[in-house]
Amino acid sequence: MPRLSVMSRRLVFSLVASAAAVAVAGLAAPAALAAEVWPTQPFRIIVGFAPGGGNDVLARILARELQQSLGQPFVVENRAGAGGLIADELVAKAKPDGYTLLLGSVGGNTVAPILAKKLTFDPRKDLAPVSLVAESGNVLLVNAKLPYQSVKDVLAAAKKDPGTINYGSSGTGSTLHLAGALFAKQGGVELVHIPYKGNSQALTDVAAGQIQSVFSGIPPALASQRTGATRILAVTTKHRVKSLPDVPTMAEAGVPGYEFSSWYGLFTTGGTPPAVVERLAKEVQAIVARPDVAAQFVAQGVEPATNSPKAFTAFVDQELTRWTREIKAMNIVLD
């Protein structure tokens, strides 16, 4: 067999190398193309509460806008129950491809998992935080016929006669229950908690004088105060809110260090490729930053707020740690 010259061998090696490069490129092309064309199928946004609530309204706003920006259909599904855990589990066990989303919140994603006697998923590993979406505060609302003009009045009365002042909430273990329990703990007083199946009846009863006070979301509390039957004493947030500029924060009003904010955020299934999570986060950030969308949020009593997947993951982890500690200290358990 004739021997190849040095130039011939170099030419052969060059041709082989080129063919190998083409083959590798051919194998990589489908993956690269798939990444470029994602998404290619419809999305679901799961909501763990009934239609009409804060999670549901924000989910529908996002669904409408994401459908426009991503070019795929978005369907909102309400899977209410177990404080949001039914929806959490559905998303946690979905295929990790980014097509199943969850409009979560402090109640469903940090409080309910802690209070649950048994979990079938890990809230830290099986749900992937995408971005914060919005934040909101609550207020302490009292019957207007009562002599309490300030938080300090309530605290003074509660310290004088422990166990004689009550507050309603939307149910045991709800965020409004925790807001009241935290107020009692940090204020050093004993209050009687009266759980309802929803906040609307609690608001009706405080206006009628059936109960003395209630912790409530801001929009329904404002509507109640306008009737003259109730009085807002403080907001639970760290800073004053735009819709109630003259109402002090709880910390300003007499409970130093008090802060309780509700939040809403978008999650997907744990294990979803980071590039997909980042893409979703950027879409959400761009949407929430738009003035027309922000105005819709404000109309619902929430403040637009977004962050990166990394920052949101750290935030959720901090919330789980905080509420594990607080719930244990306040000895809150579900019946």
Structure description:
47% of the residues lie in helices and 19% in strands. It is of the alpha/beta class and 335 residues long. It folds into two domains: 43-136 and 261-330, Bordetella uptake gene, domain 1 (D-Maltodextrin-Binding Protein, domain 2, 3-Layer(aba) Sandwich), CATH 3.40.190.150; 140-253, D-Maltodextrin-Binding Protein, domain 2, CATH 3.40.190. Strands 1, 2, 3, 4, 5, 6, 7, 8, 9 and 10 form a ten-stranded mixed beta sheet that branches. β5 (166-169), α6 and β6 form a beta-alpha-beta unit. α2 (54-70) crosses α10 (274-288). It is globular, with a radius of gyration of 26 Å. The termini are far apart.
Which descriptors would you attach to this protein?
single chain; 2 domains; 12 helices; D-Maltodextrin-Binding Protein, domain 2; 10-stranded mixed β-sheet; alpha/beta; 10 strands; 335 residues
List the helices and strands and how they pair.
Elements: H1 6-37, E1 43-47, H2 54-70, E2 74-78, H3 85-92, E3 100-105, H4 106-115, E4 127-143, H5 151-160, E5 166-169, H6 175-187, E6 192-195, H7 199-208, E7 213-217, H8 218-226, E8 230-235, H9 250-253, E9 261-269, H10 274-288, H11 291-299, E10 303-304, H12 309-330
Parallel strand pairs: 1-2, 1-3, 5-6, 5-7
Antiparallel strand pairs: 3-9, 4-7, 4-8, 4-9, 4-10
Helix pairs in contact: 2-10, 4-12
